[in-house]
């Protein structure tokens, strides 16, 4: 199958390579032509701009958009819409909010342009092991693009989750769960590290993947990280969130579903970005005021 791929970041570039090695023809584009040339060297066809990409694919076209969510994704959709034909299909494989998917679908449908959302999990390891694909959209569009989805995914790694937005909704909750799992591992390993025992944390992470009830791919990656840097001394304690955790918490509130673990894991990411928390200093000040408790004075440069 011939498909366009817009966005050649860490995941997009690997997805192009995986598709090409599985017999699909890919026309690749991003603003950085060096990345386009790298995709060409992997077997893809390169495009100089969006119009060139559209020219290189016979209608009905399928074009996959793999760029950051929000304005960047919307900008590409707005630029593509006048260039493509009725019956062409746009697939958003990034981490868009499912409500944006619904709005885009409703906007494009009167123009005869088809739209799908594909929640994609696998990160930088997807090239080797495949991507878990959570797809939303019309069933006929899903069947049309199924060969591409199955080439990207490992066996049994594709699911049509429902109408448009359902794929990104499932991916959103997936990432919310991921937040909670990561936070639990982080807390547990810190307890191990601070104990009176000299425990090899990398070996524990590897051990727990041998039949333990807490085994997981995240734990495999934890073991790799600890093997490379046992004290994680090369990293700053700063953790970003890409949006899906926030959206999951917002949906839990809207649906009246208690989600304390996911909510607190999100809050801990916020805390990680504070070099000198005012709230923590406020707590220390209050304890000193009412109880005369010891405090540590800030170091003055």
Short structural description:
By secondary structure, the protein is α/β, with parallel strands linked by helices. The chain contains 13 helices and eight strands.
Helix vs. strand class: alpha/beta
Stretches where pLDDT is under 50 for at least 5 consecutive residues are none
Strand order of the largest sheet: 3-2-1-4-5-6-7-8
**N- to C-terminal distance:** 62 Å
* Annotation field: number of helices: 13
**How would you sum up the major sheet?**
8 strands, mixed
Give the strand content.
Answer: 5-15%
Could you tell me the number of beta strands? 8
* Secondary-structure element series: EHEHEHEHEHEHEHEHHHHHH
Please tag this protein with its features:
13 helices; 8-stranded mixed beta sheet; single chain; 301 residues; alpha/beta
Question: How would you describe this structure to a colleague?
Answer:
By secondary structure, the chain is α/β, with parallel strands linked by helices. 51% of the residues lie in helices and 13% in strands. The chain has 13 helices and eight strands. The protein has helices at residues 10-21, 33-41, 50-55, 71-80, 98-108, 126-129, 139-152, 166-194, 201-208, 217-228, 244-254, 260-272, 278-291; strands at residues 2-6, 25-29, 45-46, 62-65, 89-92, 114-121, 132-136, 158-162. An eight-stranded mixed beta sheet has the order 3-2-1-4-5-6-7-8, with helices on both faces. α8 crosses α12 (260-272) and α9 packs antiparallel against α10. The longest helix has 29 residues, at 166-194. The chain is elongated, with a radius of gyration of 23 Å. The termini are far apart.
